[in-house]
Design brief:
This protein has helices spanning about 5-20, 25-35, 50-60, 60-65, 75-90, 95-100, 110-120, 125-150, 170-200. The chain is an all-alpha fold and about 200 residues long. One of its GO terms (biological process) is response to antibiotic.
């Protein structure tokens, strides 16, 4: 029997996720995989929701390990790189976007605050920075949801509409550019307005 602790439970749960998909992950299957009785898992996680929250946090580790921005970074380049890193991390796990959707990033709050401070210090209005980060996050999760759904749709069913295959990465990059362009425009407009008020 494998010696079990919280980290091992989460690691094995993520491996199980990759093998069977989110809909089939269960504490019964996980307990069998670990060679323990199912009730023993409640020592580490009171509910399946708690387990999934821990899995979501662990799955985000590669993104959480990326260096935070520095004052010398160009905020536009950083915004793109940060969002791309988030997408890559979601794609590392089967159903990664579904696992992440709705989770609360408790362990990432300090990093989020420091990212926001960087954008504001770079001249981005605080409210616009907040909304752009939220929009980029939700756009990324939605994009990966679609991409992972397409990857797992080989069920032999016939599509109702004959449409060309989607290049998910190109579509993601196009949408990300539109979000950034909007933020750049709003930041420039706010700076020009502030400048005019100062002159007057």
């Amino acid at each position: 029997m494998t010696k079990v602790n919280r980290e091992i439970v989460v690691s094995e749960a993520l491996d199980l996720l990759d093998e069977v998909g989110l809909d089939t992950v269960s504490t019964r299957r996980l307990a069998k995989r670990l060679g323990v009785e199912q009730p023993s898992l409640y020592w580490y996680f009171r509910t399946k929701k708690d387990l999934f929250a821990a899995m979501a946090e662990a799955a985000m580790a590669p993104h959480a390990a990326v260096a935070l921005p520095t004052p010398d970074d160009d905020w536009r380049d950083w915004f793109l790189d940060n969002t791309r890193s988030f997408r890559r991390t979601l794609l590392m796990r089967r159903d990664g976007a579904r696992l992440h959707a709705g989770s609360t990033p408790v362990g990432d709050l300090d990093r989020i605050r420091r990212k926001m401070e960087f954008l504001v210090a770079s001249g981005v209005p605080e409210r616009d920075a907040q909304m752009a980060m939220l929009a980029a996050s939700r756009f990324t999760v939605g994009s990966v949801l679609e991409e992972q759904a397409d990857a797992g749709s080989g069920d032999g069913s016939v599509p109702q509409v004959d449409m060309p295959a989607i290049d998910h990465e190109s579509a993601f990059e196009a949408g990300l550019t539109l979000i950034l362009d909007g933020l750049v425009h709003r930041t420039a407009m706010r700076a020009a307005s502030t400048c005019r008020q100062t002159i007057v």
